[in-house]
Predict the structure of Flagellar hook-associated protein 1.
Amino acid sequence: MSSDLQIGLSGLLTAQRAMLVTAHNISNANTKGYTRQSTIMAARLPFVANGGTLGQGVEIVKIIRHKDEYINSRLRDISSSLGSASVKSQYLGELESVFNETTEASLNSALASFFKGINDLSQYTENMSSRAALFEKANTLTDSFHRIHNEFDQMKMFVKQSIENKISDINTLSENIAKINEEISVVHVRDIESNDLLDQRDALLQDLSKLVNITVTSQNNGMVNVSTQGGDLVSGTSFTRIVSDVDDSGEIEIVNYKNENSKYTFSAGEVRALQDFYNETAVRYKDKLDTLAFGLIKEVNKIHSEGVGLSGGFTSLMSTNTVSSTTAMLNAAGLDLTPSNGDIYISVINKSTGEVTKNIISVDVSSDSLVDLQTAVNGVANLSASIADNKLAIFADAGYQVNFSYALDPNPGNLGTSAASVSGIYTGQTNDVYTFTALGAGTIGSTAGLQVEVKNSDGNVIATLDVGSNYLPGNTLNVANGVSLAISGGTIATGDTFSLDVVNDSDSTDLLAALGINTFFSGTDASDIMVSTDIAEDVSLIAASTGAVGNSTNALRLAALQQNSSALENTTFADYLHQIASSLGEETSNAYRSEENFTNLETSIRNRRDEISGVSTDEELVNLVRFQQAYQASAKYISIIDGLVQGLLTSIG
């Protein structure tokens, strides 16, 4: 009878335990990372009798987890990719809002407003309110550069903090995985599957894979090793603590806490995306912003340095940029704008007579230093130069002014007894010298067929002017390239001559802009671009004119920069800014699409996982009824056996 009771009891206990597993499934139906469990039942070893074997009931041989390791591994891989894509789209979206190109407060609007201020000034060059308005628009522009630059710094600071926080999470997850490894190995020794611990470990691995891409390797003792590029994060019951560090180049790297030379490189995950943004994306767009700022500084200053304000010239000038050494070659003197070989035209004005003397200083930047430039300036009559704190200062003698204007000399000399006067604005593409020579002898305006020949520095004839009987002395004659000539009455002889410097660029070296002499902007990039201190203190110094005060030649040259298609990397400033915004917009759009694609893929794989590992309450309720019936049947069987035993005992007694 004991065997009969044991068979019934085994069925009772097995059904009861199966119901416990089913109840466990139902109670964890909504638990994240839970894997459905089920019981594997088998007949107990039979009893061998004379007539054969007699069954001994049933037993639970194993409680299994319904899982697919490939799907779990695939899900971890997709989770890493999704982590990268989601972080990338988030920060690119924030970066797009930093440029904020669709609003009136954008850098694009400030740039357009700045050039409008220059255009307005070109119409009213002597109007102080127009100058003040341009100054304010320029300040708004520089503030816009500073705002975006500061936003970059803030974003990088937040990204760095986020990396540090996520590295801390990685260490915590790795430590917990190592602890669970130890607990699992203890149970595994007894050849028992610790299903709930395995679920906890899988959930931790899934969380870890979102942060960094990982490779999980199972061991025979039930533990797993977790590795990534650079080394292990978890090895059995031990884990590696990692930290973030900023290297000498300013990039964030991930290293072993105990060995900074052991670097971890991740191919996916949130940390990789944050590193990419900090080390590459933010740097790339910040460099573009700095390139725009420096290009604007350079081009505006190159033109501004050649013009004059309302004073028409300067009694003294001080450079604002320092050289690394006064004896260093100018192309290796640490100047942000590297000068080139060429000529600088220095005009000295006698304030009492209005006479203008043009002087040319030829510069070889590979052999000349700031000291050499000082010496050359000292060699110009009525000028002197000095150096203090590695900066050049230029002084005009009393009663004189100096400028670097490319304006034509209005009184270049005489032709015989006739005084020549020049007007116009030279429009040629290169600096040149025009030589005027009398081709005959006679009286200006009287002698028939009297002519003046004009040649350029190459000896080519560019004009032959009729100054004979058909010419009225003092009338203007067109020469070439915007230059006009008028000759007073008088006599000339064959071979009488004078020369005129026609200047397209009075500083072909860009040395004035490099040294910061008579410049509009100071600074080198978006972080420090400013309107020069001198102009901030006195807007009359804004160089809207060349030569005579009141003309708008230089203001028009500055205004033309807005449409200059070669101003910056073969495009205009506005188009360069639009390219930045377009590139950022396209990159952001791609990141959004990538995030959406990985989200859909992850959802699909999770659905596949849930089909295998997820709990269906309807299915579990069916199992519960089935096991309940088995339990009731076993209980009924035990009751019957009990009745038989009681009846037998009664009959014997």
